[in-house]
Amino acid sequence: MPATQSTRPHIFTLAWPLLVELVLSVAIGVVGTTLAAQTSDIAGAAFAIANQISVTLFLLFRIVGSGVGVVITQSLGGGQRERANRVALASVGASTWIGAVTALVALVGADGLLALLQTPADVLPLATPFLMALAPAMLFDAWNASMAAVMRAHLRTRDTLVVLVAMHLSHLALALPLMHGFGPLPALGLPGYALALALSRALGLALHLLLWRRHLHLVPRRADWWHLPRRELAEVLHIGVPAAAENIAWRLSFMAAMAAAGTLGAHALATHAYVQQIGSMIIVFSLATAFAVEIMVGHMVGAGELGAAHRLVRTSLYRGLVISGTVSGAVALAGPLLLRMFTSDPTIVAEGALLLWLGVLVELGRTFNLVVINALRATGDVRFPVVAGAASMLLVLAGGSWLLAIHFGLGLKGLYIAFAADEWIRGLVMWRRWSVHAWVPHARAARRKLRR
Predict the structure, then answer these.
(1) Longest dimension (CA), the chain
(2) pLDDT, tens digit (0-9, with 9 covering 90-100), for 23-41
(3) Which tens digit of pLDDT belongs to each residue from 42-68?
(4) Residue 436 and residue 201: Cα distance in Å, rounded?
(5) DSSP H helical segments within 212-265, as ranges?
(6) Cα 59 to Cα 75, 99, 188, 243, 316, distances in angstroms
(7) Is 185 helix (H, G, I), strand (E, B) or coil?
(8) Which residues are registered as beta bridge partners of 170?
(9) pTM, 2 dp
(10) Cα-based torsion angle of the residue sequence 216, 78, 150, 15 in order, rounded to the nearest 10 degrees
């Protein structure tokens, strides 16, 4: 039977485990940057730029993860459990192929990828082996991302939180001795961090398989690990390809901005890296809300509750703006103190503190994008965000970063002005799309497909 409004959990019940997951993920990134920065600001910059490439490659996994999440939530909302199971198993084989290709790109293309980002010459000797060492973890991340998406679609966000906690605790426990050496273990530096990451992700895969068996009664067969069923994946790709394209377009534009930062030298790159790590502590609140909204809207679309979906998105957006503004303002006030966690350089601290205030504008605009785009995706309206956002990403985010930072000589301040302008332009466009109900035909089409 489809989930009814009385049996469906409150959005906060879904959001708080997602928030904790995201906070832990950000904390690990902050810890990694801190450990690298303790060696030198050059090592901190190497960690940041290699990690940005890794995150960009990770977006390929959203081709599977985003599509799987939406198709399964709509199926479960419409009472189609067998359809949901077939899609879940199809995601395993798709993740194998995407993860393997991504790992291969990082392994053999590290030099070229870092060169594209204008990585300073003094950063390359540390960044290249680190990026190559991250390759094995990417394959495990592909499986974990899709399997976690399936668990969340089944409203089991607490279980995914347990897996994430186990992964991060094991990562930290292994990273410290592998990076700095312990007893007979040699100090591996940044590659030691990557090795610890791969081992922790292997643990996460084992836990996901256990939870799939116990709670979802799903056990992938040997063939499921490489088979690509056409019908199920067609549904996933219909949602996942545009969703991933929107994320990849943003990430590529952001990487172009990172390349602009790279031309400003290792000092500016380190400043940008530290501010980004602090800023990532803000975005988690909007992300948790957005992911919970996507899950709930998917179930509501499957059940035909379009009015409830509209009210949920409107309320969640207002709350997200209040929370994002409050948190980003508090972080900006504490900026100098937070920046001294990474460096004692007074120039980096002063410039970084200014960037955090500009970050308040960035985060408010970003809240529109995260909440509304995820809601549009859950209804099946996935192409408009890509088409509408591409021009802003290319011209405002990428082009504006180079124009303001390099041509007009504003440096990192120019980058953040471009970031804010892009987020607000796209965010307001997406909100108008939602508020005029342009997504309703897509939601009705998804509902009709479930009735076949």
Answers:
(1) 65
(2) 887 777 778 877 777 777 7
(3) 887 888 888 888 887 887 787 788 788
(4) 43
(5) 230-263
(6) 24, 11, 28, 10, 25
(7) strand
(8) none
(9) 0.78
(10) -110
